[in-house]
Design a protein that fits this description.
Layout (H helix, E strand, L loop, with lengths): L1 H13 L3 E3 L5 E2 L5 E2 L1 E3 L8 H18 L5 E5 L4 H11 L3 E4 L12 E2 L7 E9 L3 H12 L3 E10 L3 H9 L4 E6 H10 L5 H12 L8
Parallel strand pairs: 5-6, 5-8, 8-9, 9-10
Antiparallel strand pairs: 1-4, 2-3, 6-7
Helix pairs in contact: 1-6, 2-3
Length: about 210
């Protein structure tokens, strides 16, 4: 798994799905200042990377959840990845919206499933875990058995770790923040000073960069 984590991080940096700018921080939608920006939708534009992620997801599902019956993607970032994984495994696919649709049938979960089916959720990115666990809750309320979630990348915030534990939902990822920073430093992508900045940011991201 270390090889998968390193290769995933390498690809994310290579195609600029992840950008590191400690000296020129990004501003997230939440208002947080951040030295890192992650947009894993970029992976879909690169066939080699897209296939690697699909195959890595599929292998992880086979390993951890051999009796999975349905693959669910979290809208919108993980819809495509989830569909690719479901196709690779020959399983049904559904996706979960962030909320109930305000027209038509008013669905939050799109696609066919049956109550009691074992579902593995595919996600592209874990930050605080709020939207990801919202999908888990929606599936459970609809009668599904959520086996666990697998994501491409996680920042590893303690808030997210605690939230997943509280919801009793297993979370696995192809790569994570620690692997990424170590790889970026070893390859000369960032300096040792940048490494210190990136590690400080993760300790208290909501307060970082505010004076």
């Amino acid at each position: 798994m270390d090889a998968i984590a390193n290769k995933t991080a390498e690809y994310l940096l290579q195609i600029k799905a992840i950008k590191l700018q400690p000296a020129k921080p990004f501003t997230w939608a939440s208002g947080w200042k951040s030295p890192i920006y992650c947009d894993n939708r970029m992976t879909l534009s690169f066939p080699v990377v897209r296939t690697f992620i699909r195959d890595s997801f599929a292998a992880r599902v086979r390993q951890l959840y051999p009796d999975a019956e349905v693959i669910a993607g979290v809208a919108t970032g993980a819809i495509a990845h989830g569909a690719l994984v479901a196709d690779s495994l020959g399983l049904p696919f559904i996706y979960v919206r962030s909320g109930v649709k305000d027209h038509g049938l008013g669905n939050q979960i799109e696609g066919y499933f049956e109550k009691g089916q074992k579902v593995v959720v595919i996600e592209d990115l874990i930050s605080t875990g709020g939207s990801s666990l919202g999908a888990v809750k929606a599936l459970r309320e609809a009668g599904c058995t959520v086996a666990g979630m697998i994501a491409i990348f996680t920042y590893g915030f303690s808030k997210a770790v605690e939230a997943f534990a509280a919801e009793e939902c297993r979370l696995d990822t192809l790569s994570d923040y620690t692997v990424l920073v170590d790889l970026a430093a070893a390859s000369g992508y960032i300096s040792e000073q940048d490494v210190a900045t990136l590690r400080d940011w993760r300790l208290e991201p909501s307060a970082w960069g505010r004076e």
